[in-house]
């Protein structure tokens, strides 16, 4: 499956040799969809036009080749809109106030700033009120599991991390910094993150391959007093649970009784299994390349050892095909092409399929939709986008606002229920089990659920003003 993209082709058409109708027909035949035409110049002999074409990425070269081979057509330039929006990066730092004169300068910089620094030196807690710490998250990656693209390195990870930072800011007002590390050594990653932590209110680990991600996250949670959250694990699990709660309502089945197959037991898969079990699921089957994980086998990955003991209650052995027979739910966080039509045909009635691998899902949605009752993917170009972007802005907004030191399992379950609750009962249907990321209730609901849970459990070290009338938590 290829990714759809938009290109703008500037072309000169010799009127006596070719017509725009021929150009349009050629673009259509090569798989392109013309969405806009702008006339740039029109002369007696020739016109120059910018033609905006939506197409599958794989058709890109073909369309340009066809146009170049047509008599009377000169392709002047081809620009890819997706690349254009990345030119020079997608984010920047801008000051909150201008420095207009010497007085301003002496306040925000030397000498005034020294007094502020000393105030923090005398009381480090003041970093929360006198610096950007309280609103700042580091988005940290080593570039080893970028989307489903694998170990593509820290530089190549940067556009994804910049994208996460954009979403943090736009959706939750959080200032997030993309930090791409040129090391894969867990000890070094832990050490570096600890060393940079003073300036941050939270750490969002991103696209770090399993199983190293588990150890890195655990050590950082133990050693830091700010929330550390591996988005690919928990953000994904929170949103998957939210989607599943609503999908089960649509099909009229219960979490406790459905058979759920989770494929790709890496960062996301491990956390999804844990989250499903924590929420009450009893029939979870974890499948990776070697087949169904179960008791009796020995695994080098301690997370798999643990999952083997708590999933697959009947001890089924075999491949994905064996797990899928009679399954009610498939959740894929593996890679493209893992799921075949035969697998879907062998599922129970009213099946639910979340094919969440990015950028290309486990099965092509256009193929799968005929065989399943509820279909979701991680992508924004199909209905039901199950993507961790529905979680990380709101969960960090809540954790930062109540200054929680950790994001607990209870806070994650509360976040999942909050996301599910954004879809009103009368709106719920097969095509709408999960709210859009542009629904501004998502961050509001998640933030509220996270803060309420943190206050109840004593995790909150600050009561946000809008929660002031509620009971005081124990202070630590
Ligand atoms: N939609 C979302 O919000 C979201 C969030 C996180 C991850 N993802 C996607 O999920 C996938 C996994 O991400 P991750 O961070 O967990 O990566 P990861 O590298 O930690 O884990 C991937 C796991 O999938 C397994 N796998 C790969 N191909 C398989 C196959 N053919 N059959 C069975 N197992 C297979 C691997 O062995 C590995 O255990 C990626 O495509 C990623 O883009 C989606
Ligand atoms: O980045 C995304 O779109 C989701 C997720 O974090 C992923 O790694 O695929
Ligand atoms: Mg990710």
UniProtKB/TrEMBL annotation:
Pfam families: malic (PF00390), Malic_M (PF03949). SUPFAM superfamilies: Aminoacid dehydrogenase-like, N-terminal domain, NAD(P)-binding Rossmann-fold domains. Divalent metal cations. Prefers magnesium or manganese. Residues 8-81 form the ACT domain. Keywords: Metal-binding, Oxidoreductase. A divalent metal cation binds at residues 206-207, 232. Belongs to the malic enzymes family. PANTHER family: NADP-DEPENDENT MALIC ENZYME (PTHR43237). This is Malate dehydrogenase. It comes from Paenibacillus darwinianus.
